[in-house]
Amino acid sequence: MATLLNIIVVEDHDDLRDITVETLRAIGHQVVGVDCAEALVEIADTMHVDLMLIDLNLPGEDGISLARRIRQGQPGIGIIMLTARGKVSEKMLGYESGADLYLTKPTTMDELSAAIQALSRRLRPETQTSVALKLDLHKLTLTGQHNQQSQINLNAHEASLLAAFARAPGQRLENWQLITLLGKGDISKAGLEMQIARLRKKLVQVSVDEHPIKVIRQFGYQMSIEVQVV
Asked: Do 6-124 and 128-229 agree at the fold level?
């Protein structure tokens, strides 16, 4: 089973960027594509990023400079460089600049997907998600991950949302689905964000994940932890 990641593709070639984004989304990853390093400012606060795919020949700040900056600010993030530069000296510079993997174009989508899956073992170790939270829909309780004796109470809406996330493909739900589950057709985006924020705080209390529910820009939300419904 593939480990699903939050990915940003930095590629100025429109067709290649679109193909890469759509292919990775079809697998189940949350993916955003941008055409330059400067565009990252617009999405910096909207999603938690696990992995960046970076082309080196970018307008404005180039991929080498971007990788160095990202690696310095976020040491644990994954970085894959995608470039036509294939000389040994260029590959060495790429790795020295912070790349985990350096792939030379043309790269097939199968090769890229395999590289991402291999890197995901470091970014999302299985040991962090091997024990599921237990959601009891009858008692409206959630039992903890790091301490099976820890337990919190939920209200009916929170329990319904958690169950829906757990059963959804990729544990992702669109905004309209969440609003329907809450039974509030007139709820605002800010109101939905408040409901998710309250649920997220409760999950953090009993989970080893500090970001149990993440925003999917212009879509909805994705739960990144395992919840067993009993």
From this structure: no
Judge whether 53 and 82 are in contact, CB under 8 Å: yes
Residue extents of the structural domains in the chain: 6-124, 128-229
Pick the CATH number of 6-124 from 1.10.10.60, 3.40.50.300, 1.10.3210.10, 3.40.50.2300: 3.40.50.2300
pLDDT in tens, 162-214: 988 888 877 888 888 888 877 765 677 788 889 999 999 998 888 767 788 98
Is 79:106 a contact under the CB 8 Å cutoff? Answer: no
On whether the 128-229 domain is CATH 3.40.50.1820, my answer is no
Quote the radius of gyration of the chain (alpha carbons, Å).
19
Lookup: tokens for 117: 């899956």
pLDDT tens sequence across 15-69: 999 999 999 998 888 899 999 999 888 776 667 788 999 999 999 999 999 999 9
